[in-house]
Design brief:
By secondary structure, the protein is of the alpha/beta class. The protein starts with 7 loop residues before the first helix and ends in a 35-residue tail after the last helix. It has a single domain, classed as D-Maltodextrin-Binding Protein, domain 2 (3-Layer(aba) Sandwich). The protein has a 3-stranded parallel sheet with strand order 2-1-3, with helices on both faces.
């Protein structure tokens, strides 16, 4: 559950007796993809509440759209898979911070039947 690092600064406070901190968390569009299910599981199992967080998951398509929403103040945090949009924005002076980019290499794979192609070039036009 490496996604918890997104909330490192929020978790530093003791949640006991305190009012829950409201957090708008951007995530992929429904149905959520397997690689971004952790926040949905945490919400359903009450893990955020145990840490004093009142999390609302806002479904948004694409990392660049997550980044735009973060910069506009529409989100407090986001589950962003690649992180390229965040890194480019930060390099241009945007006030945005990435705590963890869990997949610096894409988790997606190209799969084809052996008779279809044995190289990427062999997939061209198919």
């Amino acid at each position: 559950m490496t996604w918890l690092f997104l909330f490192a600064s929020l978790l530093a406070a003791d949640p006991a007796g305190a009012q829950a901190v409201k957090v708008k968390l951007g995530s992929s569009l429904s149905p959520p993809a397997l690689h971004v299910l952790a926040p949905y599981v945490a919400l359903e199992r009450g893990l955020f509440k145990k840490q004093g967080l009142d999390v609302e998951i806002v479904e948004i398509a694409g990392d660049p759209n997550h980044t735009k929403a973060l910069l506009a103040g529409e989100l407090d945090a986001a589950v962003i898979i690649g992180g390229t949009a965040v890194m480019v924005s930060a390099s241009k002076g945007a006030k945005i911070r990435a705590w963890l980019i869990p997949n610096p290499i894409s988790p997606f794979h190209i799969v084809a039947r052996r008779e279809s192609a044995t190289t990427l070039q062999g997939l061209v036009g198919k």
